[in-house]
């Protein structure tokens, strides 16, 4: 399996978009990656927008991002909460500084905006935050998936198959 030696952080908080969290985790696990679900608290169950639970394995403050190969940020309303945690922004900045894959879908772009890492980066997102993305200095495209180096972005749940494939491809090449 091509991702058997890869470790991925999947960030979570309340009201994540259920499919945008679980689908990437399952696909990456199918390819052999170890995915840790990381939230403000370890061993806590967070609820998705549509009621699908997700139980964390670690807290943001308990992990060392240098021990991981990539990070996934789901959409939904969770990104508006995630971007308020300095530890989350530190994780995202670490991944950016070390050119490790950062996956973001839908409203997850808010986290990358707050981490201040989008200047000059080609991205997509839900059209609802297009202005936020461009005001942060990103070049926005209305495409299912946009890959700009180590940053992989996507619009919404119907785009999950090409998004997760692109993320896995970038991760495999690291």
UniProtKB/TrEMBL annotation:
GO MF, one example: peptidase activity
SUPFAM superfamilies xref list = Class I glutamine amidotransferase-like (SSF52317)
| Keyword Protease set for record | yes
Q: Keywords, A to Z? A: Hydrolase, Protease
Task: Note whether Zinc-finger occurs among the keywords.
Answer: no
> CDD domains, alphabetically?
GATase1_PfpI_like
Which residue ranges does the record assign to the DJ-1/PfpI domain? 6-167
Q: Which InterPro entries match?
A: C56_PfpI-like, Class_I_gatase-like, DJ-1/PfpI
Which GO terms are recorded in the biological process aspect for this UniProt protein? proteolysis
Sequence similarity: Belongs to the peptidase C56 family.
Q: Can you say what this protein is called?
A: Protease I
Q: Which organism is it from?
A: Aureibacillus halotolerans
């Amino acid at each position: 399996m091509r991702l058997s030696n890869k470790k991925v952080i999947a960030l979570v908080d309340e009201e994540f978009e259920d499919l945008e969290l679980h689908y990437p985790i399952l696909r990456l696990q199918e390819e052999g990656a170890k995915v840790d679900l990381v939230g403000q608290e370890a061993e806590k169950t967070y609820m998705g927008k549509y009621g699908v639970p997700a139980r964390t394995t670690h807290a943001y403050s308990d992990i060392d991002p240098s021990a991981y190969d990539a990070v996934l940020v789901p959409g939904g309303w969770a990104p508006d909460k995630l971007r308020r945690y300095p530890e989350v922004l530190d994780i995202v900045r670490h991944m950016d500084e070390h050119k490790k894959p950062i996956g973001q879908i839908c409203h997850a772009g808010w986290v990358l905006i707050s981490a201040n890492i989008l200047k000059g980066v080609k991205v997509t997102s839900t059209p609802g935050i297009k202005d936020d993305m461009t005001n942060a200095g990103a070049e926005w495209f209305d495409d299912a998936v946009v890959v700009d180096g180590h940053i992989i972005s996507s619009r919404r749940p119907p785009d999950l198959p090409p998004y997760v494939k692109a993320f896995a491809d970038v991760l495999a090449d690291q």
